[in-house]
């Protein structure tokens, strides 16, 4: 359906102007990289937030957000704009795509990109539809007919909704919400698709690199078995819930998302103000790997996976940059790009005290490679972490 990814057309904002007392040049070494999948897990909040986006990861904090909130000056986040955006009324529609999680970081960027190229995007919402474009669906699965009706006439479905992994402390009740919001919503869509005479041909059903658990220094690709731990278990159930749709002939793709580098939201969006304030630093010993991806490359990869044809991959596909780096290197790059020192490491005991069980994932390591994307011919615009951080800081964010 969709075209192959295209280079973005993004305005070039002026570099940030140092404020009083701000260091004038690059500084030290600080982590960053959005919450690591193994270092932090990105947020995916309920409803129309990208539950899967940022993979299960959360949000590492090098200092209180309040202390940094007024220090996030610099280029204003600018919407991702792909070449070809600005479609006029004369631009023919090129397909109908339903999207859950359409108001989240990834969902909103994907919707803008598709609509700009003439696609008819249908946001699926839990609440009563508030505008003509929206269609209500039932994540509980109680109303199968309603969900099937919501998908009528769609060529593809992109499912991104789920509760934010790093939004709250991991109580037993919140862990249940993290799991249920993913597994039940996916099962509801799978059941609806399986009942349809003419279902969407392609379903991008979100997942995350949390599937692999803590991989240490060992690089893994899509052939690796599932890991251990709460997030790995959630990802396995999440993907398994889509099986009825695959059995009914729908091409199901599981984009296993890493840490999305963006200023406009997600785990990384919370890190930029901290580093801008000069309060950033490595997490724990900083040797854990972070598997990141720029927002531009993530949207381009989703569109690449929406394409149909003999070479279009199905099943699990890692959405991570080809060059995962350690938290220590992320810290250094963040300090260099933002021109700030990175003198405030967060010791592991402090993280465990602040985050509880979630700290285990924040301090874990994930060295995940996008083997299937590369084999299918996808080209990354921002393969390295410095490329991704600079793109986010200079405007490639929603």
TrEMBL record:
Residues 8-23 have a biased composition (Pro residues). It holds the Pfam family DUF1731. Residues 97-318 form the NAD-dependent epimerase/dehydratase domain. Residues 346-391 form the DUF1731 domain. Gene3D superfamilies: NAD(P)-binding Rossmann-like Domain. Residues 24-45, 53-75 have a biased composition (Low complexity). Residues 1-89 are annotated as: Disordered. It comes from the Bacteria. Belongs to the NAD(P)-dependent epimerase/dehydratase family. SDR39U1 subfamily. NCBIfam families: yfcH (TIGR01777). PANTHER family: EPIMERASE FAMILY PROTEIN SDR39U1, SUGAR NUCLEOTIDE EPIMERASE RELATED. This is TIGR01777 family protein. The lineage of its organism: Bacteria, Bacillati, Actinomycetota, Actinomycetes, Kitasatosporales.
């Amino acid at each position: 359906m969709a075209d192959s990814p295209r280079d973005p057309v993004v305005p070039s904002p002026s570099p940030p102007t140092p404020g009083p007392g701000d260091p004038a040049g690059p500084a030290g070494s600080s982590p960053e990289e959005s919450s690591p999948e193994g270092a932090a897990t990105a947020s995916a909040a309920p409803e129309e937030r990208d539950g899967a986006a940022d993979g299960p990861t959360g949000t590492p904090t090098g200092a209180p957000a309040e202390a940094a909130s007024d220090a996030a000056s610099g280029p204003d986040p600018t919407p991702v704009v792909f070449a070809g955006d600005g479609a006029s009324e004369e631009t023919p529609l090129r397909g109908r795509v339903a999207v859950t999680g359409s108001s989240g970081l990834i969902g909103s960027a994907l919707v803008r990109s598709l609509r700009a190229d003439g696609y008819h995007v249908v946001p699926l919402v839990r609440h009563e539809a508030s505008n003509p474009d929206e269609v209500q669906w039932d994540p509980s699965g109680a109303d199968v007919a309603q969900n099937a009706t919501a998908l009528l006439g769609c060529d593809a479905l992109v499912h991104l909704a789920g509760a934010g992994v790093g939004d709250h402390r991991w109580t037993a009740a919140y862990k249940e919400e993290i799991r249920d919001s993913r597994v039940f919503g996916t099962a509801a869509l799978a059941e609806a698709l399986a009942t349809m005479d003419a279902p969407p041909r392609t379903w991008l059903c979100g997942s995350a690199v949390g599937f692999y658990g803590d991989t240490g220094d060992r690089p893994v690709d899509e052939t690796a078995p599932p890991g251990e731990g709460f997030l790995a278990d959630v990802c396995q159930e999440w993907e398994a819930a889509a099986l009825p749709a695959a059995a009914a002939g729908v091409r199901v793709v599981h984009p296993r998302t890493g840490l999305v580098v963006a200023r406009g939201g997600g785990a990384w969006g919370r890190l930029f103000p901290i580093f801008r304030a000069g309060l950033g630093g490595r997490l724990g010993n900083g040797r854990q790997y972070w598997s990141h991806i720029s927002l531009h490359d993530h949207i381009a990869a989703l569109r690449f996976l929406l394409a149909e044809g003999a070479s279009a991959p199905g099943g699990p596909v890692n959405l991570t940059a080809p060059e995962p780096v350690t938290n220590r290197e992320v810290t250094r790059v963040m300090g260099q790009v933002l021109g700030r020192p990175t003198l405030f490491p967060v010791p592991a005991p402090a993280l465990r005290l602040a985050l509880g069980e979630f700290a285990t994932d924040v301090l874990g390591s994930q060295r995940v490679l996008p083997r299937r994307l590369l084999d299918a011919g996808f080209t990354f615009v921002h393969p390295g972490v410095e490329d991704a951080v600079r793109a986010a800081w200079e405007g490639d964010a929603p």
